[in-house]
């Protein structure tokens, strides 16, 4: 059984393995010891912090196999981005060039550089090691964050978004970046992505084109990938779309991958989740649920078959699930059907 829990300092080697396996373009997990250690300690501090409004907290969690102790993947939430480091994106908008006299009506798209998501909550760092993919594991990693958003709303913004990895090849070359590089930068996408991942984003402000860019002036290859996701990221996008996330015209400034967003209260799993009292008992329910405890610092979530007694507002859970979530009879749990 996989259980989600906050990352600990002792998970460093496993986090490094996830960083290595996640490959190019996975900005939030660069293969960089100092940065990964920094992310772990920042998360440990964030989980301990008493919070009444979202700030610079970053919550990083891992999925642990309860039988082997192996770490299967990562999942994260940044409470409010852009407060200490600027967060950039391009917004795609339309401009009409019209001449009645010549009977010409051209609709062109323009990319505008900005910081529109400043203060919003980002769900991020979703990675499941290949041997653990399929079944309910990916859904557990992605959706456990929505149980957290529902249970602890004061820690998060009203707007939740995710930056989806854009198109790049197996060597890390991005067609969008190739165009930007040719005209504005002289460094490779992998280096730009790495510098961003380790928080050294100053070069963006220095070198990025600040004036709007007409999309029809970009190379055909660059235009073709605007708003497209990396093939390995399609399942992640599908899960967010099913929750109600949509792209409202923002794309990543390096690989042009889409940014998707949803109001917290409109996320399907936030809306559908409910709390109940845990009752540890044998049951015969065949319904899969995502279930978490309601302890923030000791947050734990898993996917399991749960019996729900609506009249008594009880969640009937097996001993194994109770142990995985550190629950005793009578504890409060939050759950949502899968
Ligand atoms: C994203 C995960 C964790 C998902 O795990 P799994 O692959 O086991 O998921 P799954 O349950 O098999 O699939 C989830 C849903 O996607 C559908 N699906 C599967 N393959 C698909 C494809 N090629 N195109 C479209 N949909 C697809 C499945 O049918 C299922 O839909 P149904 O629900 O209908 O059954 C994994 O694939 C992964 O680690 N990918 C590589 C890393 C990555 O690119 N991560 C995202 C980076 S971007 C990021 O981190 C921000 C986003 C975020 O944090 O959420």
Automatic annotation (TrEMBL):
Pfam families: AstA. GO terms for molecular function: arginine N-succinyltransferase activity. SUPFAM superfamilies: Acyl-CoA N-acyltransferases (Nat). The keyword Repeat does not apply. Keywords: Acyltransferase, Arginine metabolism, Transferase. It comes from the Bacteria. One of its GO terms (biological process) is L-arginine catabolic process. Its EC number is 2.3.1.109. PANTHER family: ARGININE N-SUCCINYLTRANSFERASE (PTHR30420:SF1), N-SUCCINYLARGININE DIHYDROLASE (PTHR30420). This is Arginine N-succinyltransferase. It comes from Veronia pacifica.
């Amino acid at each position: 059984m996989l259980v989600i829990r906050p990352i600990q300092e002792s998970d460093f080697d496993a986090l490094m393995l996830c960083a290595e396996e996640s490959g190019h373009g996975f900005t939030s997990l660069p293969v960089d010891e100092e940065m990964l250690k920094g992310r772990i300690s920042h998360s440990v501090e964030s989980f301990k912090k008493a919070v009444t409004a979202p700030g610079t907290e970053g919550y990083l969690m891992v999925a642990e196999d309860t039988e082997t102790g192996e770490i299967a993947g990562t999942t994260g939430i940044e409470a409010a981005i852009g407060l200490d480091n600027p967060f950039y994106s391009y917004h795609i908008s339309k401009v009409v060039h019209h001449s009645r006299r010549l009977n010409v009506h051209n609709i062109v798209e323009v990319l505008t550089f900005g910081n529109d998501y400043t203060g919003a909550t980002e769900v991020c760092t979703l990675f499941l090691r290949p041997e653990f993919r399929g079944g309910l594991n990916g859904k557990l990693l992605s959706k456990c964050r929505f149980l957290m958003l529902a249970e602890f709303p004061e820690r998060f913004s009203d707007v939740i978004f995710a930056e989806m990895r854009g198109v790049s090849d197996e060597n890390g070359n991005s067609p969008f970046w190739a165009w930007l590089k040719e005209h504005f930068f002289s460094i490779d996408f992998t280096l730009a992505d790495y510098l961003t991942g380790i928080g050294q984003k100053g070069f963006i402000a220095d070198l990025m084109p600040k004036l709007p860019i007409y999309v029809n002036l970009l190379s055909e290859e660059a235009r073709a990938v605007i708003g497209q996701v990396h093939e390995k990221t399609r399942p992640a996008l599908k899960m967010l779309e099913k929750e109600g996330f949509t792209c409202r015209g923002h794309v990543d400034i390096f690989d042009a991958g889409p940014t998707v967003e949803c109001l917290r209260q409109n996320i399907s799993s936030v809306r559908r989740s409910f709390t109940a009292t845990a009752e540890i008992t044998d049951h015969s329910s065949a319904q899969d649920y995502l279930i978490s405890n309601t302890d923030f610092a000791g947050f734990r979530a898993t996917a399991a078959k749960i019996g729900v007694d609506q009249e008594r507002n009880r969640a009937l859970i097996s001993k194994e699930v109770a142990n995985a979530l550190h629950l005793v009879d009578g504890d409060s749990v939050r759950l949502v059907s899968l």
